[in-house]
Amino acid sequence: MAISDPPFLKTFIDRIKLIPHAQLLLGSGGFAALVIVLHFILRRKQTPNYVTNLAHIGARQYDVIIVGGGTTGCALAARLSEDPAIRVLLLEAGQRVELQPYFPDYSIRNMSFLSEQNLKSMPRVKHASGPERSYWVDVRFSLSLFFHYVDPTCRAQYGAPEDFDEWAKLMNDDSWSWKNFSQYFTKFERYQPHPDYPLVNTAVRGSSGPIRIGYFNTVSETSKAVIKACTSVGIPFSPDFNVSSGTLGVSRIMTYIDEKRQRVSSESAYLTKDVLARKNLTVAVNAQVTRVIFKTENGEKRAIGVQVANSPTGIRYRVLARKEVILCAGAVQSPHILKLSGVGPAEELKAHGISTVHDLPGVGSNLVDHPVVDIFLKDKHDRSLKYLRPKSLFDACRVLFALIRYHLLGMGGPLATNFGESAAFVRSDDPVLFPKEQYPEALLDSTSGPGAPDLELFSTPLAYKEHGKITFDVHTYALHVYLVRPLSTGSVLLRTSNPFDLPIVNPNYLKVPEDAVKLMRGVRLLLKIAQTEPLASYLDQDFRRPDLDHGTHLKSDEEMLELVKERVETVYHPACTCRMAPPEMNGVVDSQLRVYGIHGLRVCDTSVYPWIVSGHTAGACYAMAEKLADILKKSIRD
Questions:
Q1: Digit-coded pLDDT (tens) for 426-455
Q2: Percent of the chain, pLDDT > 90?
Q3: Sheet architecture: strand order including 365-367
Q4: What does the alpha-carbon distance between residue 614 and residue 167 come to, in Å, rounded to a whole number?
Q5: pLDDT tens across 453-503, in order?
Q6: 50-106 pLDDT, tens per residue?
């Protein structure tokens, strides 16, 4: 179906209606112009010929079935199908979203497009620090080919080298060490040099991979001021976070944004037109895997396929795999599918009437996510991107102009921002940033080594609350602190035995008290940076209002801890629920990502991280998929 067909326009209009005050656009001639512009631009973009009739795939047998069309799934499908002798099926539970998020700033715009029905369908999330909330990652949409859910802000930062050395040591497998594993980062990279960033060593960046990375996002003046203010308070400048010397420092961050200023996803980079034309690759959408199918021979259990349906009442089709079934469904859905299939904690399975195929207690345990706390600051010059959430006809016209500037003129502009434009990675025990006389408490070290961070600081050119649901009535900026190596862990539990019922997600943010204290230190550092030139001159330091933070630095530690507990949110980096670890350490997969006790079944996504990386999770996913593809090509040929 061509993207210019009537259903596309209907979908677009319906989604625009979900944006607050969208009637200002809908009621103006500007909206008609907007539709015409997008109709003209996007009409040439053809929807790939994905399979939607599940009967077609049920009638065939494949060598490899990949479950989940996200970051790792698309990469694996593309790499494995390079060998014409390997027949690959990629199953995606979601639909093709016709408004593909080419905009780099999709992370905030996406929240505008979520309906109340979608919000209510998300997994219930319990926080150790407060009441139950329902707004967390929507596991059904997180599997979409277009929702690059492991990093909605497009930041290409992979974690500290010591993170991967820690993985290698745990598994007694040096192939996971930075020294060896880093080859897979450069394999997926296609770094695009930029004249404004001559200090980046291009010799250590990949140049021929499918994933374009570089510096083509729009950067605000305040973001540049943040970098200078960070260096003034004692954070060293780092030209490249993805090098063997480590990630500590401050810089403008590389992004998954190409020279056309469009965000790069696994789908757009790996599943190109030529790849999709391969006779040995089939991609099916609206294909929810309900369970893995097993067979026992000579006392050994083997995965031989999956059961799939497109709705709770739809026909359940069996699809068979000769060699491998690989779960790439993410840190929520991969353990969910394993449990529905009878692989997981026996007591939990029994409670839901599921027969145990293999008792594996680690499935769904050890959930780790990066919690974030935001601070909100008044823009002194009223130059923020507040108008991207239009509340007047003037704002709506500015959005229309931004669309024309971005699409027709190719000039970037506000729609080419990824919001998280600059970043700093620091340690909460850094004596320069946190002097002992002011911070005497010794905290548990959760990092992978002395050169690895536990806090990330970053800025955005627009302040918002609750994942973009709430913005401010005045021009504001925001500063944010992630805890990139939290100690608190949670779980993903079955709600029922119905595969279409969402699981119970309990991230347990701040369960370990040190997590809140580290975030508090990060908030204090952010407030210090906000009062440091040149950033201080961009902010209205005398503006006082309870929902803004110009006076927050005056709060006591007790008050600051309460602020942290009230504001903590997710950044959509769930991981570690099917850990690569020894079985006695609640491991689920071995160092080749094979599920313990089951032949022919692997997991490849953030769920297998032994510990969450001290950075953004997408890069390690791409690298892991590249590594597993090499392993499988060899094993299948042999």
A1: 999 999 999 999 999 999 999 999 999 999
A2: 62
A3: 365-367, 490-493, 504-506
A4: 13
A5: 999 999 887 767 766 665 666 778 889 999 999 999 999 999 999 999 999
A6: 999 999 998 788 999 999 999 999 999 999 999 999 999 999 998 753 334 444 444
Cα–Cα distance measured from residue 280 to residue 60, given in angstroms and rounded to the nearest whole number: 12
The total of other beta-carbon atoms located within 10 Å of residue 497's CB is 14
Q: Which class is domain 49-109+145-207+265-363+575-638?
A: alpha beta
| DSSP 8-state secondary structure symbol assigned to residue 170 | H
Beta-carbon-side half-sphere exposure of residue 423 (alpha carbons within 13 Å)? 29
Instruction: Indicate the residue type of 523.
Output: V
Tokens read off for 398: 């500015």
pTM, full prediction: 0.87
Q: Which regions of 514-571 does DSSP assign to beta strands (E)?
A: 569-570
Of 589 and 155, which is predicted with more confidence? Answer: 589
* Four-residue CA torsion sign, 250, 256, 261, 262: negative
The closest alpha carbon to 522, from 444, 611, 429, 420, belongs to 429
Omega before residue 534 within 30° of 0, cis: yes
Q: How many CB atoms lie within 10 A of CB 447?
A: 21
Helix axes 29-42, 6-17, angle to 10 degrees: 140
Instruction: Name 387's Cβ contacts closer than 8 Å, sequence gap at least 6.
Output: 394, 395, 398, 399
| Secondary element (H or E) of residue 339 | helix 330-340
Those residues whose C-beta lies under 8 Å from the C-beta of residue 182, and which sit 6 or more positions away, are 161, 164, 244, 623
Closest CA to 430 of 609, 250, 180, 193: 250
Instruction: Identify the three-state secondary structure at position 394.
Output: helix
How far apart CA 454 and CA 445 sit, in angstroms, is: 9
Any idea where the domains of the chain sit in the sequence?
A: 6-42, 49-109+145-207+265-363+575-638, 218-254+371-483+510-567
What is the structure's pLDDT at 392?
64
Burial of 391: CB neighbours in 10 Å, binned 0-12, 13-18, 19+? middle
Q: Which CATH number fits domain 218-254+371-483+510-567: 1.10.260.40, 3.30.70.1120, 3.30.420.280, 3.30.410.40?
A: 3.30.410.40
Burial degree of 201 (CB within 10 A; 0-12, 13-18, 19+):
exposed
Residue with tokens 């359940």: 316
pLDDT of residue 596: 99
Nearest to 490 by CA among 612, 390, 405: 612
Distance between CA atoms of residues 312 and 316, nearest Å = 9
Rounded-to-integer distance, Cα 334 and Cα 606, Å: 10
Residue with tokens 């005045």: 474
Beta strands in 45-106 (DSSP E): 61-67, 88-91
Q: In the sheet where 249-252 sits, what is the strand order? A: 249-252, 422-426, 455-460, 476-483, 371-378, 569-570
